[in-house]
Design goal:
Layout: E1 3-4, H1 7-12, H2 22-25, H3 28-32, E2 38-39, H4 54-64, H5 67-76, H6 91-97, H7 101-110, H8 137-147, H9 162-166, H10 175-250, H11 264-288, H12 292-316, H13 321-337
Antiparallel strand pairs: 1-2
Helix pairs in contact: 4-5, 5-7, 6-7, 8-10, 10-11, 11-12, 11-13, 12-13
């Protein structure tokens, strides 16, 4: 196997370096020069047809670092994201163990719930970061701290949290720098909590505003309804008063008995009806006052009508003398008006 001083030289000669973590491959300094120069073996990239099923292919692709091939298999067969191996591990567990952050991005996009699922030991994918054998588990820690910060508090069947797994000194985990990502995850959680609190307050404010507007609308509708009822009642009273005035002039004896029950409402109706009678008689008189003979004749007719109205009212309103006197004075005013 040849020895290369940089990744670029290896790629130039047709060698496969996809086994390297994506973050390293994006590191310009690392790509320019290996420390120290390393031997790179030319590898033939596998194909899906070489495996019995898509799940086996994806497992091997992730294990060997073929993230692009793994992404293609996952996109075309998303159901494999919920399949488990003999240890109860999903593709998300394998990706975390191998520091395949690119694959974790794809899994998080198509099946985010699998990032929180457990294997048969109760481990979520973040528990297995310390098993990363390529020497760069901190990249996976950073991925979990950024994308799923709440997972650091997850516990397995031994009641060991992700924080405990990341900070154990007897593992491959960079425990001395792990606290950086743990603190970063906690800060992210605080930020998420703050955003959620702001959203909650905004939602409460919006709900209060909605309730306020609804109450204003309800009060406006009630006010409008009352106004409508008042107008309808006024029109009805006006129509009743016009009918009573017509009856006073034509057939006062047919006035309904309830009109003389001495209630304030009916007294007002009767008074207004008499005012309407005065108005009509006055208008009739004014129209013929230029003709003395006709005017004199009209006045006599009016006196006859008023006397008849007075007798009817006096006979029916026997309960309250004051009301009779008041109505009599109204009739006198009618005579004076004409």
């Amino acid at each position: 196997m040849p020895i290369f001083k940089s990744v670029k030289r290896a790629i130039k000669h047709g060698y496969d370096v996809s086994y390297l973590p994506k973050k390293l491959r994006n590191n310009k300094t690392f790509m320019e020069q290996f420390h120290p120069p390393v031997r790179i073996q030319k590898i033939v990239r596998p194909k899906l047809e070489d495996y019995p099923d898509a799940f086996s292919a994806a497992l091997d692709f992730i294990d060997r670092g073929y993230e692009e091939e793994a992404e293609e298999v996952i996109k075309s067969n998303p159901e494999i994201l919920h399949m488990k191996d003999d240890e109860g591990r999903l593709l998300s567990h394998i990706a975390a163990m191998r520091a395949r952050t690119g694959t974790l991005d794809v899994i998080h996009k198509y099946a985010p719930e699998t990032i929180y699922m457990e294997d048969k030991y109760g481990n979520v994918p973040a528990h297995l970061v310390h098993m990363c054998f390529n020497g760069h588990p901190e990249y996976t820690m950073e991925w979990f701290a950024k994308n799923t910060p709440e997972i650091i508090f997850a516990q397995n069947k031994d009641r060991r949290s992700v924080i405990n797994a990341w900070t154990r000194e007897d593992t491959n985990s960079p425990y001395q720098t792990a606290y950086k990502y743990i603190n970063g995850a906690k800060e992210k959680l605080e930020e998420i909590k703050k955003i959620e609190e702001e959203k909650r307050l905004q939602a409460e404010k919006a709900e209060q505003e909605r309730i306020k507007l609804a109450e204003q609308k309800r009060l406006a509708e009630i006010k409008e309804e009352k106004k409508k009822q008042r107008i309808e009642k006024a029109n009805k009273n006006k129509q009743e008063i016009a009918e009573i005035a017509e009856m006073l002039l034509s057939t006062p004896q047919s006035l309904p008995e309830k009109l003389f029950d001495n209630s304030n409402e009916n007294n007002k109706k009767l008074d207004k009806a008499l005012d309407e009678v005065r108005k009509q008689l006055s208008e009739g008189y004014n129209s013929i006052r230029s003709q003395p003979s006709e005017a004199k004749k009209y006045v006599k007719q009016c006196q006859t009508k008023i006397n008849r109205i007075s007798r009817i009212i006096t006979s029916k309103k026997t309960n309250t003398a004051n009301s009779i006197k008041q109505n009599d004075s109204t009739l006198d005013n009618i005579i004076r008006a004409i």
